[in-house]
Design brief:
mainly alpha; Annexin V, domain 1; 3 domains; 20 helices; globular
């Protein structure tokens, strides 16, 4: 673990802060977070071993300075909350919390789906109208939506994607009604304050993260039904090869977040230009070791290579959403 607070990732600082706060206060904070945030913070906390006293003090001091430097009195409370959470958790983790606290985007009925496994969600909505399925998938995180979509019959997938791509928001009353239907199955009550769901970018996001052969089949069938729509969706997709358009600093940031075995598997399906870009942004020793490993590696299944690439794309999207890297090429205004 890095020795100084400045060198640490936001998720590590947040994990140390939660551990220092104690079980009750940490639990209260986690209730305001989504499933992915809880999972990543949980993993970070589980990986905390022998944290030095000065490291804990540095994290706590940073948080206390944030509180001392700012006050809600005489200031816009939204800005105060946004700044405190961003300083405390880092931009990546704070985003989801800010959405829930300030924007009130997520309703409890729909939000509960994010905590369910893909098969359970698929079973729940399988018999619903395709438009309802499209709305539900638009609400989920792209990787979760991709997994759910892959469980639907092949003939149903293109129609659902087209509905997602052409979904131009939804009336709050209709979303409220859908939320209430789900609440009857889960419990709880809330109001829906946002109706911005679906669209080309959502459809492209889901296709980015779905298994390669399924993605190709869906695109082919959407093209047959609406060639212009299919082209727009593809123009907004960010695929593994597009990483070559990411600048060197962005590649270096990405490499810090990707496991070496996952990277090696993903590069099995990359062209030489992208491989060289990756090698260029590694230390000389690390690049040489990766080259040797690639040369000596046994053949890998295409599905495994594509899965590794999808995982790296998911990390890329997360970093782009957090503003830590900039994407270039066809997808630079997409993620």
């Amino acid at each position: 673990m890095p020795d100084t607070n400045e060198k640490m990732k936001g998720v590590d600082r947040a994990a140390i802060l939660l551990l220092a706060l104690g079980e009750a206060d940490a639990a209260s904070i986690l209730t305001h977070m989504g499933p992915k945030e809880v999972q990543e913070l949980g993993l970070a906390m589980a990986g905390m071993h022998s944290v030095r006293t000065e490291t804990i003090s540095s994290v706590m001091q940073s948080f206390l300075e944030t509180l001392r430097d700012q006050t809600a009195l005489g200031l816009d409370s939204d800005d105060y909350i946004r700044n405190v959470l961003t300083r405390a958790l880092g931009a990546e983790k704070a985003g989801g919390v800010i959405d829930r606290i300030l924007l009130g985007r997520n309703s409890k009925g729909l939000e509960q789906l994010k905590w369910m496994d893909a098969r359970s969600i698929g079973d729940m909505i399988r018999l619903e109208h395709p438009q309802i399925i499209a709305i539900v998938l638009s609400f989920l995180e792209p990787d979760q939506a991709a997994e759910v979509l892959s469980l639907f019959p092949e003939r149903a997938r293109p129609d659902i994607i087209m509905r997602i791509a052409t979904l131009d928001g939804i009336q709050p009353a209709a979303l409220q009604e859908l939320d209430q239907i789900l609440e009857k199955q889960f419990s709880g009550a809330t109001s829906v304050k946002s109706s911005t769901l679906g669209g080309i970018k959502t459809a492209a996001n889901i296709l980015n993260l779905i298994e390669g052969s399924i993605e190709s089949s869906i695109i082919e069938q959407v093209t047959a039904a609406d060639q212009d729509l299919a082209q727009i969706i593809q123009d907004n997709m960010f695929v593994f090869e597009n990483l070559i358009d990411v600048d060197d600093r962005g590649i270096q940031t990405l490499l810090r977040e990707v496991a070496s075995d996952q990277l090696m598997l993903a590069l099995r399906g990359a062209d030489e230009a992208l491989k060289e870009k990756i090698f260029k942004n590694m230390s000389k020793r690390a690049a040489e070791m990766l080259r040797d490993d690639l040369d000596a590696a046994a053949p890998a299944r295409l599905s495994d290579v594509e899965a590794a690439q999808k995982e790296i794309l998911s990390v890329t999207r997360r970093l782009a959403d957090a503003g830590e890297i900039m994407l270039g090429g066809g997808g630079d205004d997409f993620i």
